[in-house]
Amino acid sequence: MMMLTAAWVEFDLALDLFPLAAALLAVVTCGLLGNYLVLRRQSLMGDAISHAVLPGLVIAFLLSTSRSGTLMLVGATAAGVFTVVAIELVKRLGRVEPGAAMGVVFSLMFALGVLLIEQAAVRHVDLDADCVLYGQLETLAWFGAPPTWGELWAWSTVEAVPRSVWLLLVMCGVSFAFVGLLYKELRVASFDPELATSQGVHAGAVHYALMVLVAAATVASFEAVGSILVIAMLIAPAATARLLTDRLGVQLCLSLAAAAVAGLVGYFGATAVPVALHEANVLPGLFTGGSVNAAGGMTVAAGGLVVLAAVGSPSHGVVARAWRRRRLGREAAVDDLLAALYRRRERGESLTTPADLADGVVYQPARALRFARRRGLVEVVSPREALGLTGAGLRRAAEVMRRHRLWEDYLVADAGLRADHVHDTAERFEHLPLSPKRDAAVDPHGRPIPPPHDPAG
Amino acid sequence: MSASHAHGGLPGSITDVGAGWPAWSEVAEVMLLRGGYNTTVVVVGTTLLGVAAGIVGVFALLRKRSLTADALSHATLPGMAVVVIAATLLGGDAQNLPLVLLGATVTGVLGVLCIQAILRYTRLQEDAAIGLVLSVFFGAGAVLLSLIQSMPGAQAGGLEHFIYGQTAAMNAGDARLMGGIALAAVLAATLLLKEFALVCFNDAFAEVDGWPVTRIDLLMLALVVVVTVAGLQAVGLILVVAMLIIPPVAARFWTDRLWRLVVLAAVIGGLCGYLGAATSALLPRKPAGSVIVLTGGVLFLISLLFAPRRGVLAAGVRRVRLRLRIAADHLLELAFLGGGDAVGAAELARLRRRRGWRWWLRPMLGWHLRRRGLGRFVDGGFVASAAGLRRGRTVCRNHRLWEQYLVSYAEVAPSHLDWTVDQVEHVLGDELIDELETSLRQRGIDPRGVAV
Fold first, then answer.
1. Helices B288-306 and B240-252, interaxial angle, to 10°?
2. Do B252 and A111 touch (CB under 8 A)?
3. Which pTM value belongs to this model?
4. Interface confidence (ipTM) of the complex
5. Are A4 and A16 in contact (CB under 8 A)?
6. C-beta atoms of A286 and B85 within 8 A
7. Which listed residue, of A113, A368, B263, B372, carries a Cα 20 to 30 Å from A137's Cα?
8. Of B85, B136, B164, which has the smallest distance from its Cβ to A299's Cβ?
């Protein structure tokens, strides 16, 4: 048996080739279609469909008494489509809230499925709900696998490909073709159904086509990876990509990458992590050297990617946004500091020490002072720690004061506020990079408005 | 026969295949709560749970939280698994129900918090947040379950009950715990009905009015958590959400008043719990969770179809009636305008074509007009009675009145009139017509001047 052994990844041609192929095909297919569900705020349709196909599977199974029939695919897809229609009907006819309508329909379908399975079990038929939930990747192992990679390129390999992998391959192809051919239609129907209709795109037809495809992809992925992974893969990669970009095309590519990464990490991690923990003797009673459920592993990996994107995304991440907010707060504090120094100078108070700033006018004076000094806006003249504005500091302070006083003038003259009511508003507006167009020379309190900075003079 | 007659877990562990239908005496015993102590406690506990779920579900439905509860129930799996793992590692009792339920509560609440955090700190929408939490937490649970299965000496079998639910696996103590939790939820919801209603219908007003909205909202959510966790063993984590959703949705068809909604949802929920537990005790291979949910489904379908005002059937009848009245109006107006009392076959055919009458409309219309003594179809044509002609005259007058009104006051161009008038003339009440006539008179327009 040939092995590819990296630092912690073990790839066994016989045991891993087809399961990995099935898993990757499933996650990529679901990841691609999921983009449109997430954009259309119908993520839970995938959840509903994957619960609701159970009775379809069981009925088809009871009719054909085998798990590999095309009948199962047809039955389950039919159940999925029925679910979509039923949810729509309950929503419209019963005027039931969408979430509740979905919950009613899929839980009823699932309950029916569980009951049918129990009845089927009476007849000693081997079908259980567990394989629907978690999938059965391990059954795809290839027992007659060739011992080397070179021998893989033979016709016998094609013959050995399991039916469910073929099915996933077809579904994957169909999904890519669907998205590729109807890219424009899907985009306009997802973002603006009314516009789509006015442009001659049948938004309803696009919706149902997408739903049928989701149902079929769900069913095709079932046997290999189980419904939990299907639900996760319909949502998580698209959500990851959505946190990273605003462009649909980029989002599609990123979501495919995220799906593939989650699939690989989850698949190999499901074996590697418990084995590594076992070897490191962490909780020896728990990690006995066996691998964990691969579908669950991929689900958790996909969730991990969402968390990473949510925290670390440069554009929409929590960290990036907190950093931007912090920087904005810092600039405002520096503005306030410079303005305070400017005012003291204006009043003729030549000597200002850091202690003078602790009067509450400047927010976080110590922090503001640190940044202002680092940027060369304020200098400290040493013997008495007197604070002075540098040339650049004076220019910026004048800009801030100009904005502040122009806003005050505007608020009194045009917005009709009283002169003693405008300072607080102007204090906030002065940080904005814009000011009202006015030609007043003094503010409502009689103080001069600094002229605009002229780089030439 | 008691609940311990219990078929085992899911397929595979089942041995008693031959059990057939129970005798009537047995059915009566269980239904009348005389089927042995264990069975009785389980049936009562599950019924109470159904009542609690129905009541709590009303508020979850009104707060549009139905699917949050789904995420919550799926998120309980890793918590239960962690408790089993910890108990096994520490050599404790892995089947300790209160501890397992505590673990379930912790991760369930964690899941809800994750949803809130996703909504607050990222740009993802609620549906994606719910789906993410639901699948990722359950996936983590699946990982832990597979770990338990490889642990020597641990029984993962106990947790399987929580996924699909199994009342038969319950003992009297478990059922009492569940019933107690349910009873507490019922009491809390009943005592705080007014506060909950306020927050559900107008939380902004409640806030302004000085109510602790956040705390009331948290309490509602806590009740959902409590009922979900209590329902895990009976119904299973996949289906427990149905107990919260289906009874209130079904009850909603019958009433618009909150207290009636709460009572009805409680009754429907209780009925589901009662029938589910009793059936599961009596019949092999009828998992209580599924029976409970499907009972709810039957009640839901009945409500959806037959509820007097919001039901599909009632709405259909209303629509057909309106169609008939409109068609009759058209026909009678035509008869009146013709000067005599008859509408010829050719003219009738033209009307049918122009108004797009469906195939069933003509025979039903005949019945409708005859019953009201407005006229009858004769030899392919139509003959109006005196009453029919009077009605035709009224319709004609309404038509003209509306035309005049729209031209004079709504500034609708005369060429656009016909379509607009046709929409409204049939749905006007007599009072509105009188009012319209009066207002026209006040403005110096004589309605008789435009009437025929």
1. 20
2. no
3. 0.83
4. 0.85
5. no
6. yes
7. A113
8. B136
